[in-house]
Specification:
By secondary structure, the protein is an alpha/beta fold. It has a single domain, classed as 3-Layer(aba) Sandwich (Rossmann fold). Helices cover 28% and strands 16% of the residues. It contains 4 helices and 4 strands. The chain has helices at residues 18-25, 50-62, 73-77, 99-108, and strands spanning 42-46, 66-70, 86-91, 115-118. Strands 2-1-3-4 form a 4-stranded parallel sheet. β1 (42-46), α2 and β2 (66-70) form a beta-alpha-beta unit. It starts with 17 loop residues before the first helix and ends in a 10-residue tail after the last strand.
C-alpha cells in the first residue's frame, strides 16, 4: 500500500525531529503528493532483539516479501528510503528512541507509513 493510503492509523503529535524531517526531504518518491513507482512491497523490521528481528525477516522472506532489518530507530532513519510501498514492524520498547517516539515523529512530519507494533513486554505499559 503506498504512503498516504492508510488513513486513521496515526495519532497527530507535534514533536519536531531533524532526523525525521531529513528523511521526509530526501529526493525520492513515495510520500504524499508524489507518484509511486511500481515496485515490490517492502517491510522494515526495527527491533533490538537479534533473534526476533532475524526470525521475522526470515518469515517475511519465506512468503516472498522483501524485508530490511534494523536494530534501532537511528539505523532506520539513516537508511535509504524505499521507492515503493512499505510498512514497519516496530518494537515499542527500544533503547534510546522508542517505537512510539518514531511513530510520533513520523506523524509530525506527515509521513504516513502503516505500522505494526510488537513488544516482548508481558504487561500493558502503553494505553490510549
Amino acid at each position: 500500500m503506498p504512503f498516504g493510503q492508510a488513513e486513521g492509523l496515526f495519532l497527530q503529535w507535534n514533536v519536531p525531529n531533524s532526523d525525521v524531517v531529513a528523511l521526509a526531504n530526501r529526493n525520492q518518491s513515495g510520500f504524499p503528493g508524489e507518484a509511486m513507482p511500481e515496485s515490490d512491497p517492502l517491510v522494515s523490521v526495527i527491533d533490538d532483539d537479534p533473534a526476533l528481528r532475524e526470525s521475522v525477516g526470515r518469515l517475511l522472506r519465506s512468503v516472498g516479501v522483501e524485508a530490511r532489518l534494523f536494530t534501532s530507530v537511528p539505523d532506520f532513519l539513516n537508511s535509504d528510503r524505499p521507492n515503493g510501498p512499505t510498512c514497519l514492524i516496530l518494537d515499542i520498547r527500544l533503547p534510546g528512541r522508542s517505537g512510539l517516539d518514531l511513530q510520533r515523529e513520523l506523524a509530525a512530519a506527515d509521513i504516513q507509513i502503516p505500522i505494526i507494533f510488537i513488544t516482548a513486554t508481558s504487561r500493558c505499559l502503553y494505553r490510549r
